[in-house]
Amino acid sequence: MSTHDDDPWAPRADASTPSQPSAGSPIPDAPSAWAPPGSSSAVPPSRPPTPVDRPPGAEVHAEPPADRIVVDAVEADRSGVGPTLGRIVAAVAAVVLVAGGTVLAFGALTADGGAESPEAALEQAIAAINDEDIVALAAIMEPSERSTLFEVGFDFVDELVRLDVLDAEIDLAGVDGIDLELTGFEPRVERPGNGLAHLYLGSGVVAGEIDVAAMPLGALVLDRLDADQRSMTETDLETVDPATTPLVAVERDGRWYLSLWYTVAESVRLDIRSPLPDPFDRPAAIGGDTPEGPVRLLFEELADLDVRRMIGALDPGEMAVLYDYAPLFLGDLEPETNALLEDAAASGWTWGFDELTFATEPIGDDLAAVSIESLAFVASSDAGSSVSVALSSSAVAIDAVVVDEFFGDTAELSIHTEGECLVVEVADAVDSQVERICDDELGGLSATEGLESIDQFGFVTRQVDGVWYISPIRTGLSAMLTAVEALDPATLEDLVDSVLALGASAADGDAIGPLFDLDGTLTDPGSAFEPIEPIEPQISLANDDLLAPALDPTFAFDLDPVTGQTEIDFWAPELGELDLVRGVYATVASPSLGPGDVVVVSVELADLQAVDAITAFADATGATAESTAVGDTVVNWVDPFGDPIVVQGRGSRLHVFGVYGASNDDLQTVAAIQTAG
User: Fold this and answer.
1) Alpha helices (H) in 378-529, listed in sequence order
2) Cβ(656)–Cβ(572) under 8 Å?
3) pLDDT in tens, 347-383
4) What are the start-end ranges of the H helices in 383-451?
């Protein structure tokens, strides 16, 4: 395979870095036993490996060939983009997606395509739109975008015909009922470098016409349109101001093509005012020597938090824009992921995949589908905490062990399938519980239902010059196509009618409910439901007068009477039911600067019953209620987990203090501050 040594815009292979395969070289498919460094290694190895080497004496930005003119980057200004230009883009995109399969039908995917210059590429694209010639428009698109988007588009059209969304007589060479005419739009061309050209469109005129009766619509759509809608026609004529954001053309083997992805990438780059990415900092394309090789690489590097090598698992042609623009974010991202690995190593955590198996099925020339058969992920710490997840087509098992690093207490959680049931086990130092949830409690579903289809989740991989890579766009579009293929016309009709009924119900002001039962069958919308309002944590409190001025909460939110009673029941259930008016929940960092936080639950009662509540609490727990110098009544207690609790109050104010890993001295200090306040 070519390593592009003759291309000044491609990275050079770095043979001096053994942990970084040279560009295009496959990795072994055997799983590696990687885990972040544990206690045996105080400092994790530097990662990621050094990027590909620059040639001796090379500057940060490589000197482009003489025929490429480098100009300063033009800053984007979106103020001149009118609504019509957006409609043009949307309309063209819709036509391209609907008629994408035309390219296959006419063999344009194998044609050279492109144009001799960026200006010529734009001229050909405008001519194709004016002629409603989707084949010609596809031929001017960047080759990898053409092959991915348009190939699957053909299959989507077939499915839409099968589902009666489109008419079987649809002519993809010229879609009837839609007519666009673009005139003017002389471009201003700038070449910033890296084989790119910016095409800034001048002012022009857009004429458009839609004739619903002539559109190739199927019975599913036509049967739901009234006579006026079927005969609707609409025309529009509008002058468009010069564009201030560019369309982007790219050069491939001496030919110029328009590119959707490079247009998006350059728009973002100009927005953030970043220089062009350095071609010599591109990630190396790695791939694998079998279809499952790049998928295994992706999983293992995901566990390693190595984004550079994760990119190396992707098709370098299809994802050329990601390879090219990765240097703009890897420089900031890699130090952050390295810091996470260093923190994990310092805490004694290791993790990785104990099991990762795949099934491979050829789906065409140089294409294969790689699906997951089973996986097992394990993470553990030197302190004894661990998490493991095992998944297959017949079973799932999730196990977690949490060891309290302050007190040494252990809590365990296990969720696993057992026959047709889901078994949940919880155990800690005080108690253990086991609950079996079977099909009756699961709404008639089996605990393993859905697991059988795990092998349907997979990746499309593509072989390029003998090396296999993940094809992300084909993977995403294939998943969408699979979902469409699973539909039958009757089900789609029911779904469409339910959505239409939902819209009509909403328009009439009726309350609406879910469209589906748990078993997936359609239901009649109309059942009312009450939305649940989440409690948003806030540091800026309306009820901060309940906290002593000297307390500085690190996390806090207001309590209404219901949630206030819930918090009281959690920390001190012996207080019983109280008549609450308002309250505050807050955590305060340990005053000694040690680890942990002190929890403060402060509430205001409807009357002067705080002392009575504390006295009842003392009677229930066998503790002693004492009075402070400032007149507060205080009870010190130890909860069933061995953690200290302080309850104090006076008049209508009641405070409960608990701890998350803090010491009893810290708790007493915070309680004293609250008392003094």
Assistant:
1) 472-485, 489-507
2) yes
3) 899 999 999 999 999 987 899 999 888 899 999 998 8
4) none
